[in-house]
Design a protein that fits this description.
heterodimer, A: alpha+beta, eight-stranded mixed sheet, four-stranded antiparallel sheet, 21 strands, 25% helix, 18% strand, B: mainly alpha, 78% helix, 0% strand
């Protein structure tokens, strides 16, 4: 999840190794850890595809939501290293907090589409290289200063400055900031270095929160955004208190106060919810969630996540340089059993392409099924009539990695595949020399296809785990071309074709996608589950508490 | 032991009162132990899997950034020189700076230590009298129903890990009956004493988990005393049983009490780590777990050293008190 290098795609929540470890400890290691990850931030523009999987929406019952009260939410991460810098959002609590204080230009909805927030409209010229952004008028910062184009330009320049180390830097990279200019107080003309069809997605990226013109230091004293809540108190690693912004441009939040409390231990966090010490908590372990199904004392918030921990086969290394071997391995996985046993049913079967739930996801591909007999035949055709032995490196670095590796060993043996499992240290899993070189490894992604492609499927991708594209293929060129198409349908159609090739010949075995499961008190209304970020994308302003 | 050392000791004994010499010797040994522990702590933290710089920066960080951070943290220095930098800092009372918060480690410890001392202190105050009372009762009712009940119950709890006992108490008192808060949430910066309800379950957990050993020690002391000839004599002389127990048994079986206190205090140093984690009680133990999770080496080292010094300190004090109470040990020293 930290593989966000997509110059074309915003950054998902970065689960840094540090965060992964914290989460792992919190989750007590194991498959429950599945919940300890998020998705990437953004959707593919204004596509209309709705997320797959089931959700547990909490309805407001038509009545107007109750107003007032304090919403206390327990988080798992953060800690001594966290900051108030909205340009750096490595943890969930930092993301959630920044999103209360600041606004994005575009905000992602539950169906993974984007709607304008501080933006009003965005239009391009014919070749998608010049875009005109109109901003919402009448918006003020918490200190009363009006929000204008200067704030947006300042933020973009700040993000682009390498010294800021902003996570969103890759999102502003295609923007030619020298040529980009302010037309009026509420409109900006963007000039891009190359055509980008889905520019709204870049402007809506996770860490692109608009800060006031001139501000580059972010402390509890200077926190000043346009967001639904104002920062009242910040105790590093312990808790954050926010109060409702009475003048919020999109309507005052229902609750008066939000308290974010850090409780890293999963059991303790759940105990706090059950004991009424908090109204909501991030990440319920799957076994706990399983036990709570049908229990009306707890409200499950189940977002159809796009998190996946695929197996990676290097298409340029033996034995996987033979497409028949890759096909055989893909058929040697019992996906449903993986979802049932590793995800405890909190997920969906995967079909070897990324980004289930996103508009660009190709749903029309034939679902691969478990077929060890066919796999055996393929291996024989590939010159392995007596089966094949491979080493799979695994670790606890991602949710369900180890469990799925163990399950694969068992399932693949029916196809004559003998998998030897080597367990590596989770902290080093994505930092050692084996990653990106071992023929058979595992990975961890949650982004849309186009974002993963940028990070892992192009010849110059920093995390090219599988050696894709195949030699002599023009796949990468066609991908880049597609990126410049402004019409969503057209662009996604080409992305769909590219996915089909990946499905047929690629080195990824994507066996399933895990859900994000959180919990809240039944008194909390207005939660809309989201598959990308936990706790309904931290949209606390729409939550209310029944007395 | 070589002769020269014995000679030295004899000489010192002549110069100093024996008790002072004893204390000095214990403190010196304590100091050597602290040094040994510091080496161990340092090596153990070095052996922690994962590279600190990578852990801080994460997978997305560039190699240059990691290299810069390693340089900054002094991770490129030879091990010995890293150790010396750290240990000489310790001697000056400088525990270093936490990697994450960039705050002095001592500040972190200073905030959390009082909370742990309150939790430990309260547990001690509750555990010692309870253990002694139950131990005595159990001893004088040896092999009768009360003895079996006390023995069974306390052994049952010692057999359970603290987190199981803690979770059980939470589900009973916080979730089933909703009379106590399940976890120790209180506004940071405030004292837990201002929120006594958050202390009840952690103290109760430590009490249940730690009592059995103490009860059995006191019980054994009482039974031994009851078997002595002077108690037999007192009984044969027709002194009422009540009086025998009060005057002879209790007083003489009190010797293990100090050991009970010392053992409890030592055990608590480990027990608080688990219990603080279960209840998210903002003490040293909880801090240690979080520091390990965050790979914050200076924080881990500092906290581990505090635990080590406390442990050694408690031992020295306990030994000293026992020596004061039992004069014959003084000459043996």
């Amino acid at each position: 999840m930290t593989k966000h290098t997509d110059p074309n795609g915003p950054n998902g929540p970065q689960l840094s190794r540090r965060q992964a470890i914290v989460s792992a400890l919190g989750a007590g290691f194991g498959l429950s850890l599945l919940a300890a990850c998020g998705g990437s931030d953004d959707s593919g523009g204004s596509g209309d595809s709705s997320p797959a999987g089931s959700t547990t929406p909490s309805d407001t019952g038509g009545a107007s939501p109750a107003s007032g009260g304090t919403l206390r939410v327990a988080f798992n991460d953060g800690g001594a290293q966290e900051t108030l810098n909205p340009l750096l959002l490595p943890t969930f609590i930092e993301t959630a907090r920044a999103q209360q204080i600041y606004d994005r230009l575009f905000q992602q909805q539950a169906d993974l589409s984007l709607t304008p927030l501080l933006a009003e409209s965005l239009e391009s010229n014919d070749d998608a290289t010049v875009w005109t952004l109109k901003l919402r008028q009448g918006v003020t910062f918490h200190d009363g200063t009006p929000f204008t184009a200067d704030d947006v330009l300042w933020t973009l320049n700040l993000v682009a400055d390498p010294d800021s180390a902003s996570e969103a830097a890759t999102s502003v990279e295609p923007i030619d900031l020298g040529a980009t200019r302010k037309i009026s107080d509420h409109s900006i003309e963007f000039h891009l270095n190359r055509p980008i069809g889905d520019f709204a997605r870049l402007l809506g990226s996770k860490a692109l929160l608009i800060v006031p013109d001139g501000q580059s230091e972010f402390t509890a004293e200077t926190a000043n955004g346009t967001g639904p809540f104002k920062l009242k108190e910040f105790l590093i690693g312990e808790r954050t208190v926010l109060t409702a912004n009475e003048n919020y441009h999109a309507g005052r939040p229902h609750v008066d106060t939000v308290e974010m409390i850090q409780i890293p231990d999963n059991t303790a966090r759940f105990n706090a919810l059950q004991g009424g010490q908090v109204e909501a908590m991030i990440f319920l372990e799957y076994p706990q969630a399983k036990a709570l199904e049908g229990d009306d004392s707890v409200q499950l918030i189940r977002g159809p996540g796009s998190v996946t921990v695929p197996f990676t086969m290097r298409v340029d290394e033996a034995p996987f340089n033979d497409p028949k071997v890759r096909e055989a391995f893909k058929l040697a996985v019992d996906r449903q059993q993986m979802v049932d046993n590793v995800l405890l049913g909190f997920g969906r079967v995967g079909n070897d392409v990324f980004g289930d739930g996103y508009p660009s996801f190709n749903q029309s591909l034939e679902q691969r099924e478990y077929d060890p007999e066919r796999a055996k035949e393929l291996l024989a055709e590939a010159g392995h009539p007596d089966g094949l032995t491979v080493t799979l490196y695994t670790s606890d670095a991602g949710p369900g990695m180890k469990e799925s590796a163990t399950a694969l060993k068992e399932q693949a043996s029916a196809a004559g595949i003998n998998i030897q499992i080597e367990t590596l240290d989770s902290a080093e899993y994505f930092a050692n020399d084996l990653y990106l070189s071992a023929p058979f490894y595992q990975s961890f992604w949650s982004e849309a296809f186009e974002n993963v492609a940028q990070g892992a499927l192009l010849p110059d991708s920093p995390y090219n785990e599988t050696g894709w594209p195949l030699e002599g293929s023009d796949w990468a060129d066609r991908f880049r071309e597609a990126q410049g198409i402004a019409a969503d349908d057209e662009r996604n159609a080409i992305y769909g074709q590219l996915q089909e090739e990946l499905w047929a010949e690629g080195g990824y075995i994507i066996w399933g996608f895990g859900d994000l499961v959180d919990a809240a008190s039944p008194k909390v209304k207005g939660i809309v589950p989201n598959g990308v970020f936990p706790l309904g994308h931290f949209n606390f302003k729409d939550w209310s508490i029944e007395p | 032991m070589s002769i020269t050392i014995n000679a030295g000791r004899l000489e010192r004994r002549r110069l100093l009162p024996p008790l002072v010499a004893y204390v000095l010797r214990r403190v010196c040994i304590g100091f050597i132990l602290v040094v040994a522990v510091s080496i161990l702590v340092f090596l153990c933290t070095q052996a922690l899997p994962g590279d600190t710089a990578s852990a801080i920066i994460g997978r997305s960080g560039s190699e240059e950034a990691k290299a810069r951070l390693r340089e900054q943290l002094g991770l490129n220095e030879p091990l010995l020189s890293q150790y010396w930098t750290w240990f000489s800092g310790l001697l000056r009372g400088d525990l270093g700076t936490a990697v994450g918060s960039r705050q002095p480690v001592s500040e972190f410890l200073g905030k959390r230590m009082p909370n742990s001392l309150i939790l430990g202190g309260l547990t001690l105050i509750v555990t010692v009298p309870t253990s002694i009372a139950l131990g005595i009762w159990s001893g004088i009712r040896k092999d009768r129903l009360a003895d079996h009940l006390i023995g069974g119950a306390t052994l049952g709890f010692i057999a359970l890990p603290e987190f199981v006992t803690g979770t059980f108490l939470i589900s009973l008192f916080a979730i089933r009956f909703d009379v106590l808060p399940p976890i120790s949430l209180f506004p940071p910066g405030e004292s837990p004493l201002a929120h006594p309800d958050v202390l009840v379950l952690p103290v109760m957990t430590l009490l249940l988990a730690g009592m059995a050993y103490n009860v059995r020690m006191v019980r054994a002391g009482v039974i031994d005393t009851l078997d002595t000839e002077y108690v037999q004599m007192a009984r044969l002389n027709g002194i009422p049983e009540q009086r025998v127990i009060r005057k002879h048994v209790l007083r003489n079986s009190m010797a293990p009490t100090v050991q009970v206190i010392a053992l409890t205090a030592q055990w608590l140093l480990g027990g608080v780590v688990v219990v603080e984690t279960v209840f998210q009680y903002p003490g040293l133990g909880d801090g240690l777990v979080k520091a390990v999770a965050a790979r914050d080496i200076p924080l881990v080292q500092g906290t581990a050293m505090v635990f080590a010094v406390l442990y050694i300190g408690v031992n020295i004090v306990a030994d000293l008190v026992i020596v004061l109470l039992i004069p014959k040990l003084r000459t043996a020293a």
